[in-house]
Design a protein that fits this description.
Blueprint: E1 9-13, E2 19-23, E3 28-34, E4 37-38, E5 60-61, E6 85-91, E7 96-103, H1 109-114, E8 119-127, E9 131-140, E10 146-152, E11 155-157, E12 165-167, E13 173-176, E14 182-185, E15 190-192, E16 197-201, E17 207-213, E18 216-223, E19 227-232, H2 234-239, E20 252-266, E21 271-280
Antiparallel strand pairs: 1-2, 2-3, 3-4, 5-10, 6-7, 7-8, 8-9, 9-21, 10-20, 11-20, 12-15, 12-17, 13-14, 13-16, 16-19, 17-18, 18-21, 19-20
The structure holds 6-O-phosphono-beta-D-tagatofuranose (TA6).
6-O-phosphono-beta-D-tagatofuranose binds at residues 53, 66, 75-76, 153, 177, 198, 229, 231, 254, 256.
Length: 281
């Protein structure tokens, strides 16, 4: 049986000095350091005792995005609130990877009642000198078809949100949660943040650029993840989160790749694979 150590954190170390840390709780990436700089944001008020999803890093959203009236699971599903099994570390001379697994038999009775499917998730985090790849596979081990949403809820650390922009979203339709779910079409080459932003851009191309300030940029190359969410809580929503400091909205932006606008259908016995590679340019 693979190790299952509650509250444990796995550290990946690359010969270049790059490191990553992943909590077994939610298989949440909670740190990614490249060139001695932390690239992910984790709130200083994040709860790390397993009683709440970690506020920051890369929470893994599955099997629902948001809430669904007909599926009484907590917001964003159970994957980020569950202890995953540690499957081990693989290294070669250029990359170091770790794998985690979550199966239906690790869920609570309530979770199984809310989402009664036999499944197996395997999540692989791979570190190289200047990239972090996070790939999820979903195996339908049931006799029936299942449907799911999934999303990598990545919190990028930035020095000042005023100097941040996201490129690659121009011309895409988005649903705007801030305006109550209206849809619109993005017309900016660079999406900037000057207030609360909570948008699901649909069917977006796979290559995005996040300018994080000081002439530094990251790229996101997504695979099989159709949509991209851009989120910053700004002042009022920041005040409303107990696990987020009132002023931390200045220091983060969420650019989240996922398949959330539509359900992903998975036939019995089928496997789905999707994820992202984030690169420091
Ligand atoms: O990804 C954006 C979003 O869906 C926002 O609407 C906001 O709710 C955010 O996720 C954080 O959700 P959480 O459940 O982690 O507080």
């Amino acid at each position: 049986m693979p190790a299952h150590e509650a509250n444990k954190v796995v550290t990946l170390e690359h010969p270049s000095g790059a490191t990553a840390k992943i909590s077994l709780f939610g298989a949440t990436v909670i740190s990614w350091i490249v060139k001695d700089t932390e690239r992910l944001f984790v709130s200083k008020k994040a709860i790390l005792d397993g009683t709440k999803a970690i506020r920051g890093g890369i929470p893994l959203v599955f099997p629902i995005f948001g809430t669904k009236s007909h599926i009484p699971l907590p917001q964003h599903g159970f994957a980020r609130n569950s202890y995953w099994d540690y499957l081990g570390i693989l290294t070669d001379n250029d990359e170091v990877a770790v794998r985690f697994a979550l199966k239906d038999n690790q869920l609570t009775k309530e979770q199984r009642q809310s989402w009664p499917h036999s499944f197996r998730l395997v999540y692989t985090v791979t570190l190289t000198a200047n990239t972090l790849k996070t790939i999820l596979t979903v195996k339908n081990e049931d006799s029936d078809t299942l449907e799911f949403n999934t999303l990598l809820h990545t919190y990028f650390r930035v020095k000042d949100i005023a100097n941040v922009s996201v490129e690659g979203l121009n011309s895409y339709t988005f649903t705007d949660k801030v305006t109550g779910g209206t849809t619109d079409v993005e017309n900016r080459d660079k999406v900037t943040i000057a207030g609360e932003v909570d948008r699901v851009y649909q069917d977006v191309k796979d290559h995005l650029i996040v300018n994080v300030g000081d002439q530094e940029k990251l790229t996101i190359d997504k695979t099989t993840m159709k949509d991209t969410v851009v989120w910053n809580p700004w002042i009022e929503k920041a005040k409303g989160m107990g696990d987020f400091d009132d002023n931390e909205y200045h220091e983060m932006i969420c650019v989240e790749v996922g398949s959330v606008a539509k359900w992903v259908r998975l036939e019995s016995g089928q496997t789905w694979t999707g994820g992202q590679t984030i690169s420091i340019v």
